[in-house]
Amino acid sequence: MSIPARLxxxxxxxxxxxxxxxxxxxxxxxxxxxxxxxxxxxxxxxxAYEQIFPRFAIRYAVAPLDLAAAFGRAAPTVLEIGxxxxxxxxxxxxxxxxINFLCVxxxxxxxxxxxxxxxxxxxxxIRIVQHDAVEVVRDMLASDSLAGVHVFFPDPWPKARHHKRxxxxxxxxxxxxxxxAPGGYLHCATDWQHYxxxxxxVLAHEPQLASLHxxxxxxxxxxLCERPTTKFHARGERLGHGVWxxxxxxxxx
Length: 253
Ligand SMILES: C[S@@+](CC[C@H](N)C(=O)[O-])C[C@H]1O[C@@H](n2cnc3c(N)ncnc32)[C@H](O)[C@@H]1O
Fold this sequence. Notes:
This protein has one domain: Vaccinia Virus protein VP39 (Rossmann fold), CATH 3.40.50. The chain is built from ten helices and seven strands. The protein is 32% helix and 17% strand. By secondary structure, the protein is α/β, with parallel strands linked by helices. It binds S-adenosylmethionine (SAM). Residues 33-34, 81-84, 88, 104-107, 110, 132-134, 152-155, 167, 230-232 line the site of S-adenosylmethionine.
C-alpha cells in the first residue's frame, strides 16, 4: 500500500491541518537531506500512524518547544534525527527510562513502526515530530537545551553530485551544536567511509565541539547510552564497508 499523499505532503501534521509557515518559505530554500518519495507502508504501520502516533506527536511550529511540558517531566533530553523504523530508538528508550527522547523523522511508515514499538513496550519517554529535523532544530529547540543528539546512519548520499544533501555538514552542524548543553554530546554513526571522513572533518572543525576520542569512537557508545547493532550496522559489516561512530561533546562557553 502507498502512503496517502496528504501524509507525505504535510509531514508536520498528521491531522491534515495546514502547515505552519517557516522562514525557509522564500528564495533561500535549502537542499533537503531526504528525498520526497512514496514509501510502502504496511497496514499495521498505517493503523499505528493514525491511531497511536497522535498520542506521542509533537506538532512542528515556528516556536520554542517547552520540553518539560512536552514530556510531562523535566529530564535530560536526547534528540534523535532520522530514526527510520525506530528499532534503535525503542531499544535505547526502553533501556533508559530516565531520559526523554525527542525523535524526528519525515516518513510515515517509520513513524508508524516506531509508534507500534512505543505502544508495545509502553514507553513513556518518547515524543515524535514528523518534520524536517533541520527546521525542528532551527525553530523549536533552545540553545543549550539538549543532553545529547543521535544521528545514526543518516542517508549517505554516496554519489558526488548528492553530497550536498548530507545532513552532517555546515551550517547545520553549527546550529545543532549550539542546542546541546555544555558537556552534552553529539553521536553520529555511518557505514560509508567517505561520509565518516566528512563527519570527522566537519565535527573536528566545529569550534563548539570537542572529540571524546582521538578520531573515531572505539565503541558505539556515548556518555549516556550504547548504540545497539541494527540493520544498517549489520549491513555495513556484511558488505565490508565498516562502521564508524563519532562522539563529540559540546565545549563550555
Ligand atoms: C538511512 S535511514 C537510518 C535510520 C535509522 N537511524 C537507523 O539507523 O536504522 C535515515 C533516515 O533519516 C531520515 N531523514 C533524513 N533526513 C532527515 C531530516 N532532515 N529530518 C528528519 N529525518 C530525516 C530518513 O527519512 C530516513 O528514515
